[in-house]
Amino acid sequence: MGVPLWLFGGKFRQVGRKRYKGVPCRPGRERTEACSSGSQSSSTKSVCLSIMSATSGIAVSPELATTFADAVSSKNVRFLKISIQNEALVNDASIPPSSTLENDLNRLQSLLDDNIPAYVLVRLDDPPSAWLAVHYVPDTAKVRDKMIYASTRNSVTKSLGATNFVDTIFATSKEDVTPAGYAAHKRHQAAPKPMSAWEKEIADIKAAEREAGGTPYNANAARQSPFAFGTSVGLKWSDDVEAAVRNLAEATGDHLVTMTIDPSTETLTLRETTATTADELKNKIPSSDPSFAFFSWSDTALERRIIFIYSCPSTSPVKHRMLYSSGSGSVYQTAKSLLPTLLLSSRKVETSDPHELDASFLRAELGKSKEPSRVGTPSAGLPVGGFARPGLHKKR
């Protein structure tokens, strides 16, 4: 349904059903000053906005439809200017091509008026069968003209065949349809779409994978498991790392073995082996780089266990996070073959902040704390033997 023509009839009077130019005022609209008025009340603006979102009902004239059909078949028209006259879309001017599109765009400066809206259909060079629709509505145009052209623009392309048009420019000044303005429009169309923080991180991970030649990243799997980068990725163990882990089975008291990955050879290297308490772990685990650790712990609330700890600080580079995440599963599986089954804990501990590691944290992560954990419920929703996802346990 088109917009009623009484909305465009001029000023409305503060009277009942008086006529203006032969068109009666609609009841309930007496307080509206006019959409064409320079100063509008809030009620007038709401009426104007509703008009702009509607269809005006103005149709393409038969002459314009014939002219455009001839231009499509003959390919001898560069610009076809369309105006609204007597409540119909008519051909206002036709200009043949004289050079390339970029050079011909300079001719639009004399074709368009500074204060009067218009539609311009532009034939492209590649392919020559494609057209560009320019909706030219200058900022200095009358409000009434802006509304009429805004509510009619869809009728132009639909009535003339939407498949003929491959692009659209909404111009508010002549500068928007100069060669420089059109070049800026094409750069904007070709520019990458803005990404969210999550999408940007995924893009960085994919770039790191391409550089490392790794397995393609699976975003859906990553939401299910922190080791979705590929738990089948194996790492070489240096002799001293293997010996240090084996010795934990015979150790008495609390002992810690920390190890890192040499990226050039993808080999586990020993960082440190030391006697320490659970409350001192925060000072023993690297705070800025990822690392793996095996902690032999004798606790009053637990039987003696060797706990696998995967620390991945959020400030570490994406490439390092990917490397450690992809290898953590194989590190644990290899340790199972080196240590007695009942001694190695089936629960693993992950953290993105090593400073939170202490005795109460380990008890909570291992599900042995009798008091509510200060970091939430780490065992909720995790399968037996699963990892606590870095940084997420605080949000549970």
UniProtKB/TrEMBL annotation:
A GO CC annotation given for this chain: cytoplasm
Places the protein is found: Cytoplasm, Cytoskeleton
Residue stretches making up the ADF-H domain: 57-187, 230-367
UniProtKB keywords: Actin-binding, Cytoplasm, Cytoskeleton, Repeat
Entry protein name: Actin depolymerizing protein
Main location: cytoplasm
Family: Belongs to the actin-binding proteins ADF family. Twinfilin subfamily.
Listed Pfam families: Cofilin_ADF
GO molecular function terms attached to this record: actin filament binding; actin monomer binding
GO biological process, one term: barbed-end actin filament capping
Residues covered by region (Disordered): 368-396
Subunit structure: Interacts with G-actin; ADP-actin form.
Domain of life: Eukaryota
Keyword Iron among UniProt keywords: no
Record InterPro entries: ADF-H, ADF-H/Gelsolin-like_dom_sf, Twinfilin
